[in-house]
Protein: L,D-transpeptidase family protein
Amino acid sequence: MEKRVMTVGKRRRGFIAASALLSGVLVLSACSSDEGGEAGGDGSKKSQNQADEAAAKDASAAQIKITPKDGESKASINNAAKVTVSAGTLTEVEMETSEGTAVAGTIAGDKRSWKPDAQLERGTSYRITAVAKDSKGREAHENAKFQTVSSANSFIGNFTPDDGKEVGVGMPVSINFDKAITDKAAVQAGVKVSTSSGQEVVGHWFNANRLDFRPEDYWQEGSTVTLKLNLDGVEGADGVYGVQQKTVTFKIGRNQVSTVDAKTKTMTVTQDGKTVKTIPISAGSPDNPTYNGQMVISEKFKETRMDGSTVGFTDEDGKGEYDIKDVPHAMRLSTSGTFIHGNYWGAKSIFGSANTSHGCVGLSDTKGADDAKTAGAWFYDNSLLGDVVIVKNSPDKTIAADNGLNGWNMSWSEWKAGSAA
Structure:
């Protein structure tokens, strides 16, 4: 390359012209002289300008746009990452974490956009590099670095029931947020629950973390319920944003409601309003009566351990009053430990004649949970999560609405009063 020597006058400085071609856009930077004019007498400035103009004319017409913008620190984990191009087509897009882990993505069929194949991780730094060509085959390049919203600055809602499940008519939509929500109206506006039956569905806040939805009466059997979480970017508390964007549907099964009469020590099981079975039971003893009220089956275990110490039933030494490691056909009715379950250790004579439990509803069963002919097995096999169990005529109080999925114990007016909509 020819070397040029520039003469520096008393009041003049040399000129250095630098150009950078980013995404097909010419960016010029130069230091101007004190007095203006061309640098030197050999036409070096004119030559540089001509070179710059020639480069600009030969630049790719393709314009690449990467979102989120370079330097973003609270990007969404759902829809933020995207690459688009105008006046050209994408030929290559690479995305990776700051640790170098590749993120799979797909270029659209028309080659004008790209997005990652899966949801991003919270609190993670990413880098995107994109290449595109215009109609003349000229390349354009673009790069961006960003960070997704951190766990500390975001919230999610853990919900029940799961997508695609068939549940009983009493199953509410229950959402437990992992951060306390202060702007309940904004968050509730981002949650929509609807049903194919046309029933009005209303949300109720039990506290700053729990939001449940239900209609006035039980869900219509055979209907489909849809939960839409549009919480991405919703500010639930100061500086804390939602990250979920999800649609969930579940099916309501047959209408099964089982009524336990603690006084007569029987349970009547109805389906779609017709009695299908009457079962002798043993409810809570006079010292530990069973809660009254409408309760919803929230969990099912073919066998499980029940330790009295976990729910406050301890002896003088602090040990559990009972510890049964293989309780058969257990179904949870409350968070505090109320179950309806099989009982193999009690005399068969107690069922239908005596209330002997620590507050649960017991059904005759066998050890090992392998006898389909027992009352416990029959009820377990014929019950869905979300089925309703009503207890009446017990000397205890009505169960609290937030003790389990038991909001049906509130009147419709009380329920609606807890809505932030």
User: Anything to note?
Assistant: The chain has three domains: 63-149, 153-253, 256-405. The helical segments are 44-57, 184-189, 375-381, 412-417. The first helix runs from residue 44 to 57.
